[in-house]
Amino acid sequence: MPATSPDPDADRYYAAFVAHDPRFDGRVFVGVTSTGIYCRPVCRVRTPKRSNCRFFSHAAAAEQAGFRPCLRCRPELAPGLSLVDSSRVLASQAARMIEQRASEGDDLYLPEVARQLGVTDRHLRRIFQIVHGVSPMDFLTTRRLLLAKQLLTDTPLPVTRVALASGFASLRRFNAAFVARYRLSPTALRQRRRESPAPGLVTLRLAYRPPCDVAGVLRFFAARALAGVEVVDGHTVRRTLALTHQGQRLAGWVAARFVPERHEVELQLAPALLPALGTVLQRVRQAFDLDADPALIDPVLASVPAQSRPGIRLPGGMDGFEIAARAILGQQVSVAAARTVTQRIIERFGREVVTPFPDLHRLFPDAATLAAARPDAIGRLGVVRQRVRALQSLATAVAEGRIVLHRGAPLAATLEALRALPGIGEWTTELIAMRALAWPDAFPASDIGVLNALGTRDIRRVRALAEDWRPWRSYAVIRLWQTLER
Question: CB within 8 A of 376, min separation 6: which ones?
């Protein structure tokens, strides 16, 4: 879709706006020329005339055209775009890398992003402009400003901390960018919010596109939950979390509750994690695959020989190293056996953390801790020598910064680095790509669950079948695994 009208789908987008259709949420934004405001399709304001509406594929494009975000539907809550969409792969992956830098407060050095993607700086700028309708810098600025808008509306954080948490180097730059883009100051926006956040825990909202197989996501996490680290309770997933933000190590907990009737996830987190809120939001979106677009995915999976479950999601995680470490520990064993061994490692090497929940009290060990551990200390926990070597090689690479594991990491370079480590073969690499890097087209063809679900041991035949499921083969894996659930 072009960044602005005229657009052959404009009438369809307007019909979605009139119907408040949540399936279009995050895929299109509506700028209203009579008010200068842009909205999500789900907005409940009085419907403007068709002649007053312009349609944009990104919030950044709407803002570049001079529209301000609606204070009622709040565009910062909308789900993001799915990564794979035919020829948009390069620009979409670049957008994810930029979003990751925005959440971590890093500056954008586009030549480095281009190098990691294997293209020239000039080519990346050109493709990004064509696909997204804005420059990479405008895209980054919009992501930071929308995050700041969410923090100003939903949290009691002082404006200075909001500026830092949303990636601005100084309060002066933040104020200048906010006023230039939204024509009011951050303080004025906070004064205009409908309700002040209640004292105590902060609750944030994250939207997703329906349908969503919420039950399938919750079953997935419940089957793999580690005592003391993660708990699934009804529609809520709670877990401990540690991360490094701007050189500082932070630790606490997060609690995410699905609210299916509103197509949202409500998020609460420990006050200690608030300085890294942008990063936490990105990790929650990845963990529950909130940016998935069922309208693109479900039709492609129609030929998967499994019961159809509309809105299937690709469960990820909130810590890429944890996912990768658990993939190594799960080599050639069942889910239950892998969980048992991983539990022993947590009890031996995981740090304790204070939370308000008695069933959450321990952190998954970080890469530096496992890299420095004695190999025999890990081996005594029931981990065979080859996997100890693989685990510690991975931990060393992550601790030294040679491998980064999140959805903003460059895919090809990261997979190449993983394959170069001892004890990490194609199955492990594909699993890490699926869940840690959120790559939608990964496919561990030798996975025993996939083979059992398809009733064959012929890996060549399995790969041939999976060609029909591109570019969503990771989702096909989840659907096949679901057929084996008891």
Answer: none
Burial class (CB in 10 A: 0-12, 13-18, 19+), 272: middle
Starting at the edge strand found earlier in the chain, the sheet holding 53-56 runs: 53-56, 29-32, 37-39, 68-69
pLDDT value at 6 more than 50: no
Q: Of 21, 25, 39, 293, which is the active-site residue?
A: 39
Alpha helices in 288-319 (DSSP H): 294-300
The token duo for 360 is 């959450």
Q: Locate 459 and state its tokens.
A: 């890996």
- Taken in order of first residue, the domains within the chain and their CATH numbers are 10-77 (3.40.10.10), 86-154+157-192 (1.10.10.60), 205-482 (1.10.340.30)
Question: What is the torsional sign of CA 91, 94, 99, 102?
Answer: negative
Quote the CA–CA distance of 118 and 30 in Å, as a whole number: 34
Give me the numbers of helices (H) and strands (E) for the chain, helices first please.
22, 9
**Which residues, other chains included, contact 189 with Cβ-Cβ below 8 Å and sequence gap of 6+?**
71, 149, 152, 153, 178, 182
Residue bearing the bigger pLDDT, 94 or 324: 324
Q: What are phi and psi of 156, to 5 degrees?
A: -90, 10
| 361, two tokens | 């009290």
| Residue 5 neighbours by CB under 8 Å, 6+ apart | 53, 54, 55
Q: How, if at all, do strands 203-207 and 68-69 pair?
A: unpaired
| Catalytic entry in 289, 319, 366, 447 | 447
Written as one letter, the residue type at 216 is G
The pTM assigned to this predicted structure is 0.88
What residues have CB less than 8 Å from 336, skipping those under 6 apart? Answer: none
Distance separating alpha carbons of residues 96 and 81, to the nearest angstrom: 9
Contact between 407 and 95 under an 8 Å Cβ cutoff? The reply is no
The tokens for 93 are 């992956």
Exposure string (b/e) for 69-86, b if CB count within 10 Å is 16 or more?
Answer: bbeebbbbbbbbbbbbee
User: Exposed e or buried b for every residue in 341-353, given b needs 16+ CB within 10 A?
Assistant: bbbebbeebbeeb
268 burial via Cβ count (<10 Å: 0-12, 13-18, 19+) = middle
Q: Give 343-402 pLDDT, tens digit per residue.
A: 999 999 999 999 999 999 999 999 999 999 999 999 999 999 999 999 999 999 999 999
Known active-site residue 447: yes
